[in-house]
Design a protein that fits this description.
This protein is of the alpha+beta class. The chain is 42% helix and 20% strand. The strands form 3 sheets. Strands 7, 8, 9, 10, 11, 12 and 13 form a 7-stranded mixed β-sheet that branches. It has a 3-stranded antiparallel β-sheet with strand order 2-1-3. Strand 8 and strand 9 form a beta hairpin. The chain is globular.
């Protein structure tokens, strides 16, 4: 007997994985933000146009729908992949066979990296020793959003070189950009030992495999051990991670929204060489993503005559930017520098009768972010990371533009 609306109404309005079955045979496995709404969508008339006739016929072939609820949409995404791999349902052909889909790969190294790779590149001769892989994930955009969440809970190495390797090459160990914003535990700077890092990677593997209970037990055991040894700072890190696991903020993961702030950010920076060939730039982030099509360059007309006149340069950039009423207005402005830069930005905004938050990124002697100043009451961890990313991108863009201008003048 085909699946009825009465059966569907009994499904919970919560995230999870659903199974279309014919008798005991599993025909199809899917994930959902809301199990009830997702399965009900299979009765829509336009389903054949969006999903194809094969999937559209499922409610008429299947005799029942089973389900597994999960604590979050992220867990549903990961569980779906593992269950498809385990049961190999006939209607999940694309998920099983398509070599272009992305996989999460954890390399088998002293300090394992966590990478995204396509199925066609997962060849034994490409990756030795053989890594741990999770996938395939049919939606690359969903997977990338998921990794944003995962990396905040389990900071890990992706591309940086371990401190031990750098030291052998006679190079200085320094925090990579991801380490500066809390997404790498400091493999590159020697802030974490191989033993502790590898234990964190093992916990990440438990999470990716959907072994939530084992993961919770491991965290609770580790936290008690740290407390017993009076390592209270380490115990707090584990406690916070455990809390994050139990309260994953991922409502947007399967609904088409980004997992980030909805605050537009504009970051500004100036580049010059002893006051010559001065240029300014604007970098833009919207909902956590760099919007390079909206970056802007400013060849400064006033032309600061010395390095100490960076505030005048910033005033000119902001004044010219705000004259463009056709450009979308930012919710936050990020400036490179201290209170002098923050104050000049605020003066320009007041003059233009705009109430926009201003955050300044103060650098240390190595020109690395040291602290955020200005309207810091609006900050949370996600926003702070976006501000640092925007600031870094503006700095890169300014240097690239300045190098281009100097090359044209000199040559």
């Amino acid at each position: 007997m085909p699946i009825s609306l009465k059966q569907i109404k009994k499904l919970p309005d919560s995230p999870g994985v659903y199974f279309f079955k014919k008798g005991k045979e599993i025909l199809y496995i899917g994930k959902a933000t809301s199990l009830r709404d997702r399965v009900r969508s299979y009765l829509a008339h336009e389903l054949a146009e969006t999903r194809g006739m094969r999937v559209a016929g499922l409610p008429f072939i299947a005799t029942r729908v089973d389900y597994l609820t999960t604590g979050s949409v992220l867990e549903a995404l990961l569980s779906e992949v593992e269950l498809i791999k385990k049961h190999q349902p006939p209607f999940n052909t694309r998920e099983k066979d398509d070599k272009s889909f992305l996989h999460i790969v954890i390399t088998n190294e002293d300090y394992p990296r966590v990478l995204l790779m396509r199925g066609k590149d997962l060849k034994p001769n490409n990756l030795k020793p053989i890594p741990s892989t999770y996938g395939p994930f049919p939606s690359g955009s969903e997977l990338k959003k998921a990794l944003i969440i995962i990396r905040k809970i389990f900071p890990h190495r992706s591309t940086c070189v371990p401190c031990e390797a750098l030291a052998k090459q006679g190079r200085v160990c320094r925090p990579c950009f991801n380490a500066q914003i809390g997404l790498c535990p400091g493999v590159c700077s020697g802030a974490i030992s191989q033993k502790v890092y590898y234990r964190q990677i093992l916990q990440l593997k438990l999470f990716l495999a959907g072994k939530k209970k084992s993961l919770y037990r491991e965290h609770e055991r580790e936290m008690k051990l740290f407390v017993k040894e009076e390592k209270f700072e380490e115990a707090k890190i584990i406690r916070d991670r455990l809390f994050s696991l139990k309260h994953i903020r991922d409502v947007a993961l399967l609904t088409g929204h980004r997992v980030s702030n909805n605050l537009r950010l504009e970051a500004y920076d100036v580049a010059h060489l002893s006051g010559q060939n001065t240029v300014g730039v604007m970098a833009v982030i919207e909902r956590g993503e760099l919007i390079k099509s909206e970056y802007r360059k400013f060849k400064l007309k006033g032309g600061a005559k010395n390095i100490s006149n960076d505030t005048a340069n910033l005033r000119e950039i902001l004044t010219r930017r705000l004259a463009h009423h056709e450009w979308p207005m930012s919710k936050i402005i990020v400036v490179d520098g201290g209170m002098a830069q923050v104050n000049i930005a605020k003066k320009v905004l007041v003059k233009n009768k705009l109430n926009i938050a201003v955050i300044g990124v103060v650098k240390n002697e190595h020109h690395r972010p040291n602290k955020l100043i200005g309207d810091t009451k609006i900050l949370n961890d996600d926003l702070a990371r976006e501000i640092l990313l925007a600031n870094s991108e503006a700095h890169r863009f300014a240097l690239a533009y300045h190098t281009l201008i100097r090359g044209k003048i000199n040559g």
